[in-house]
Design a protein that fits this description.
With 138 residues, the chain is of the alpha+beta class. The protein is built from five helices and four strands; from the N terminus they run ααβαααβββ. Strands 1-2-3-4 form a four-stranded antiparallel β-sheet, with helices on both faces. Helix 3 packs antiparallel against helix 4. The relative contact order is 0.22.
Length: 138
């Protein structure tokens, strides 16, 4: 499989995991395992600025729990960095607001992608945003 195609498939899987409910999440995990993709997902919520650290931590813990990454500095740093990149893409919309959503993580070989799906609260009017980060690890 071409390397750029693998990057695209991993990114797509991370986005799909971030958009699932619990039932869909479990179904996708089984499907992706057959395709050689390791995936994980985890919910989050709270005031954006004070939640950034917790969101990154939740992504790393979920990736370890689901065996998407090993417990090495390189793998953990890749997930933390990709999550930070994904968050940076939506920061201007989310800062100062309550947010809730889901983090999707996917890996195949050297490619790790993290997607964050946000509902950004403003009374009963919610903004929706998705951020995506990618890292390559040996």
């Amino acid at each position: 499989m071409k390397d750029d195609q693998s990057s695209k498939e991993v990114a797509s899987a991370a986005i799909k995991m971030a958009l699932t409910d619990r039932k869909e999440e479990n179904e996708l995990k089984r499907e992706y395992a057959k395709e050689g993709l390791k995936v994980a997902a985890v919910d989050f919520g709270g005031e954006f600025t004070s939640s950034v650290k917790k969101i990154i931590e939740r992504a790393v813990v979920a990736a370890k729990r689901e065996n998407v990454i090993k417990e090495t500095h390189t793998d953990q740093g890749a997930v933390a960095g990709a999550t930070r990149e994904a968050l940076s893409q939506i920061t201007s919309k989310a800062i100062g607001f309550n947010v809730g959503g889901k983090i999707g993580i996917a890996r195949r070989g050297d490619h790790i992608s993290v997607s964050v799906f946000f509902a950004i609260g403003l009374l009963h009017l919610n903004e929706i945003a998705i951020g995506l980060g990618h890292r390559a690890v040996p």
